[in-house]
Amino acid sequence: MAYTLFAAIDVGSYELEMKIYQIEQKNRIRTIDTIRHVIEIGKDTYTTGKVSNKNIDELCRILKGFTDIIKEYRIKSYSAYATSAIREARNWEIILDRIRVSTGLEVKILSNSEQRFLGYKALSVSEEEFEKNIKDTTAIVDVGDGSIQISLFDKNVLVTTQNIKLGSLRIRELLYDVSDDRNRYCKLIEELVNNDIQTFKRIYLKDKTIKNIIAIGDYIGYIARIQKIMTRKKFLEQFETIKQKSIEYTSQKMSITEEQASLLLPSMLVYKKLIEETETENIWIPGVDACDGIVAEFGIMTGKLAFRHDLQEDIIYAARATAKKYRANKVHTELVESNAVKIFDAIKKYHGLGKRERLLLQISAILHDCGKYISMSSPAECAYNIIMSTEIIGLSHEEREVVANVVKYNTMEMPENGREKNSMLIVKLTAILRVANAMDRSHKQKIKEWKVNVKDNKLEFTIIGSENIILEQILFGKKTELFEEIFGLCPVLKQKVVH
Amino acid sequence: MAESVNFEDSRYFINRELSWLDFNDRILGEARDKKNKLFERLKFLSITASNLDEFYMVRVASLKDMIHAGYTKKDISGMKPEEQLKAINEKVHQFVDKQYSTYNRSLIPALLNSDIVSILTFSELNKEQKEYAERYFDEEVYPVLTPMAVDSSRPFPLIRNKTLNIAALTKKKNSKKEEVEFVTVQVPSVLSRIVPLPSEDEKKCVILLEEIIKKFIDKLFLNYDVICSYAYRIMRNADFEIEEEESADLLNEIKKQLKKRQWGEIIRLETDDKIDKELLKILKKELHIKEEDIYKINGPLDLTFLMKLYGMNGFEEYKDKKYIPQPVAGLDEDMDIFANISQGDILLHHPYVSFNPVVEFIRQASRDENVLAIKQTLYRVSGNSPIIASLAEAAENGKQVTVLVELKARFDEENNIIWAQKLEKAGCHVIYGLLGLKTHSKITLVVRREEDGIKRYVHLGTGNYNDATAKLYTDMGMFTCSNAIGEDATAVFNMISGYSEPAGWNRLSVAPYWLRDKFMYLIKREIRFAKEGKKAFITAKMNSLCDKKIIAALYEASAAGVKINLIIRGICCLVPGVKGVSENITVRSIVGTFLEHSRIFMFHNDGNVEIYMGSADWMPRNLDKRVEILFPVTDERLKSEVSHILEIQLADNVKAQVMDSNGKYSRVDRRGRKKICAQEYFCTEAVERTRQKSKESKERVWIPMEDIR
Predict the structure, then answer these.
(1) Hey, what domains does chain B have and what are their CATH numbers?
(2) pTM recorded for the entire structure
(3) Which residues in chain B (461-500) have CB-CB distances under 8 A to chain A?
(4) Which CATH architecture has domain A4-110?
(5) pLDDT tens digits, residue range A253-279?
(6) Would the CB atoms of A68 and B373 count as touching at under 8 Å?
(7) Do A72 and B502 touch (CB under 8 A)?
(8) 10 Å Cβ neighbour count for B520?
């Protein structure tokens, strides 16, 4: 049959959702079934720090129902992701285990940046509109339950992405006591949000201004039912209507539960504030949700879907933006980056790693030089810390840790038996990065053009050019020990002088 | 001035109970109509009796409950519960008199004069028959009788709801004392109430079982003389409230309540009009019954035995010729049902066309290897239902089968529990109704995996998935594989399974949340067009109309100039033809051989006619307390067929009765116009279509190409 069925499960803070998709040819995705269940696990987590037993039971019961539906459609592939409510719960391991035991489902916890990245993936499904909308300076603003993510696109390129720990559910819980007094409630939320938006403006919007906002997120999607594209004026009017009306009215009018309606207001207020603080002219509410992102991810991963907008490029751009922020030596960094991937590609047979690892190596190379911004004497640790505290959109927490370690061990001694998770991967990538870096030891880009081939147990680099590479040659040996140990290949530099 | 009229004023409304009694009276009219065949008339009389029983058990019972609870709120016609009860009592007494005068003066003489069967009383028997009756009593009846005496040591026994009993006064033999004793004995329900007697000629003779028992009752009390004996029957309050909040298991709760139903308050006593005063006094006291709730009857109690008589073999010339539902014209039986549906929506008009395609739909789905799931709502099904068998088979074939079984379907609970458990055993996912809501919608969804994707086939109907009643009730059904409806159907079952409601609906309107708004919107839209001076009309057919808001909206529409034609079989609380309120409204009721049951709604919509069909009447319970589905008919071919059906019903001048502005019904004045009986018309039409189709297929011949040059 010329189509694939896929189930995407989103364990959200406030709602469990499963969508069944039919992925057809020509990038066509049809939603076959949507199953939702309201459950406030986020309320537990954000107020008590953990999900209550009662809610875990219900979670398992509903997910069990989901697996029955998966069976009903005889679906072979599914992805189930959980977000902040479980991620931030102290008992997350117990929750996942209970789910696994009682339903057989493997639920994966998404890091914030992965979660946000899903939003972009979802957007790329409606890619024509997406491309049209990000031509000017555009911010994709994702107001979730637990936090707000603002990503800035300029001329089709991701410039920066920032996370603010303030989401609609969190806001509602924080200000629950005053929520009856609508005006005061809105004022307080504005105050709360304003501070963060000002900071964001100061740092990232120095010379730019936002023209468009793409609003994605948990609650704003309901507005999409009214209108998907709105002008600034229209949006602000819409906000006022919702602010004036009672929760009951809004819930009836939009056929959503009162619960959902009560979360819509704080969510809209964040957008409103951002619109007011920038020169936003248009707001696009595509109405996509996490499940749409999950299916896009699955489609891309399995090659069933291909989009023109390169999401991997977005990750790289985000990394470059970080490197730039920490004043990394641009030319050197670029050379190391290209060296690294070139070596990676040349020894595929020896490392056995895939595309995703190649991306991690590339990002490590891009970020390898950013520690010096903080300290010249301990750049490795500084780089590690920078990477660990920077959101790199599209990378999971685990992957970010790999990158941070690779960068750290690029210049620091590798501990004998690495205890980190993924230690083998870290060692392999570090070995390659060290060699790639050693080729531009002088930071003078003397080695630009080279060829590489494997001869006996040697990895021979043939340098084309007449530059004096004695420094590189002398120091090369020291940086290649790890490489030789891991891959059984000894890298050697040979110069082929061209006159 | 339309603005000044209060359309919700109670004087524009008829009480629903009284309106229902009028409906039963229209059925009685069929029993009295000499144009109907004799056995058909017996059947109609039997129906009025069983209808009245149900009416008492449910409606009267609930009014009594209201009075006990001190509830004094007025209904839409401005009557308090007490006033309603009083009016009902008066009307029912008159009605029962009419029932028995029909029986005694018209039907019994007609039977006597006929050459087929006589229902005799004991005194009418000849010697041989009397001997036969006595032997029958000794051998068959006596062993199963359980007489119960009442005295200081033996309390009054439990008399079961709706059973026939005989009360007697006895006196000890040779006793000087005047003291009499009360005894009661139930007419055994294990024996047929109609006892055939030997007869000399072709003509059959029958006697009712209680006649025989009364005659020989002294055989039960050897040391006593039986002074007198009379039959009696009681009706109990059977409308139970299930405390759902507290009951974890609905199934158990209903089982429990069914037992309790036997103990409900007694709300009616029927007995012989010649009953001994002393005996009646005892019954009255022991049964705690008021004078006005006693019905003294001149004739056999419980006329539902007439249905048994109707069901007896023979007498064919005194019954209407049995109509055989025809095959569906648009259905090619050489192809599977899915291929058929894929060619376009299919309309079913039962019982004129067969219900078999629906049974076949589920049967084929249960065996089709590409079918992934079957989901269905079941309200009332027949005993030994082929649908249940197919669903069970589907589950055994590894398909996901979800069935919502409505346990709260009135008086069918016991039946429902049995087969629901059967389904569960077969591996079906059975949902026993929804908390606080009765699921009345009739929808089936079949999910099938096909070459180019998941495809959904849906059947929607106005009647239950009951192959037996589908031969007697007029209902509409539709098969479709429209994507929009398929998505909605999936959402309906997701909701029924306990998941959240969908973000929106494509085509279906679902009660309790969305349906009322939809109807109001449709009516208001006609009002708008009428006010703009455009043509505006509504034609609606349903079983009952008693929703205040809808009626008020219809009044408003009428006042604005919308032409409204209503075809309402049963209760109608709306009054047509009232100046300034409902001049543009007509109401007619069709009571015929088949029970009118379909619900069809047609709105002119400024020329873009919209037609809907569904499971809901315009009653508050349908719109607010039930899961109901209204679906649009969008295919032009089907739309013209449905509007043709409405047209014929509106043209009926044989079985239709029209309501006037006083709320009285009367037959249509034909005034030389051609006779049209809608039900007959549809029968003939369906037969004709089948004939046409088979003629076409016979006419198909090979054409030899002889001349090749």
Answers:
(1) 1-109 (1.20.58.310), 114-240+266-289 (3.30.1840.10), 337-505 (3.30.870.10), 511-694 (3.30.870.10)
(2) 0.82
(3) 490-491, 494, 497-500
(4) 2-Layer Sandwich (3.30)
(5) 776 767 778 888 888 888 888 888 888
(6) no
(7) no
(8) 14
